[in-house]
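Run folding on both entries below.
>entry_1
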Amino acid sequence: MSWLAVLLTVIFMVAKLLGIIAWSWWLVFTPAIIYGVIVLVILIITFIAAFKD
């Protein structure tokens, strides 16, 4: 799944730099941000589950 987030982010970055889209940079990096949040949530849940006794 990380390849999809990276691919979309790169495509959006190139489109933004070429002037094809006029999105804010927040929208351009949204796929990477969403993937990072998902990974962070999984890590937190794993950490809580590992030390729950």
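>entry_2
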Amino acid sequence: MQFDPNHLSALATILRLGSFEAAAAELSVTSSAISQRIKALEDRVGTALIHRGPPCTGTPAGLRIAKHAEDVGLLEAQLSRELALDRGTEQVHLRIAVNADSLATWFIAALAQVEGILFDLVVDDQDHSAEWLQRGEVSAAICVSGKPVTGCDSMPLGTLRYIATASPGFMQRRFPDGITPQAAAQAPCLTFNTKDELQKAWLAANVAPRVAPPSHFLPSTQAFVDAARSGLGWGMNPEALVRRPIRRGHLQPLIPDTPLDVPLTWQVSRIMAPALAPLTRAVKEAAAKGLIPG
């Protein structure tokens, strides 16, 4: 099935910006023209593509077609580079799934090395980012090591190390006799979201299985560090972010020399891999500097 490029552009822009009006402004057309393009595209595929917001969001079919539009842009950009064609100042969009801790520590350095791409980052737990690839909603993802997603190339990047940390005051109040199972079951921990299993995994490996402490939910990597320093709770923090607070005495490991290492991979759609080769190189270089070799 052939799609009109203007229709694809309208769909992708609406879903990226969240409204017909914003899409019309970016594409320099009227809102009526945008509506007509979406109606024509929906008539062609025979199903709704957009949940009319605010904000506007995509149906499963709409998200898949919007990603196809972005993939076409990336492939055309690759062809233009190979043929030394002048594309002017046109930039393409790329959607990637990445975990918040990689984003806060090493991943930005990779994005900064790549010209001509506007990044649309989906932040999700590294254990679940592969699901975005499976649904065809992103072209690449940072995932935990494991079985590659069907149709994707998988490259090991290294290990993201976490340290269970808390403030000295929290340790004195909550663990006066050490990290016992009884104390761990009562001391509040910090949890990123309902998908975050790092705290439970560390407890199972170093304290006792099936310990279920009360939890604060804080969906922010930096808030984890700040909350631990303030004595709100203990949490698994990336070593790169707590190295200095530990050295200065603001934080301390719950149990010395008990890191939790999470191996990461870069998975990229095999069809898009040639077009994304510059990004893949940048990701591997940034990972080599920011992760523990694995």
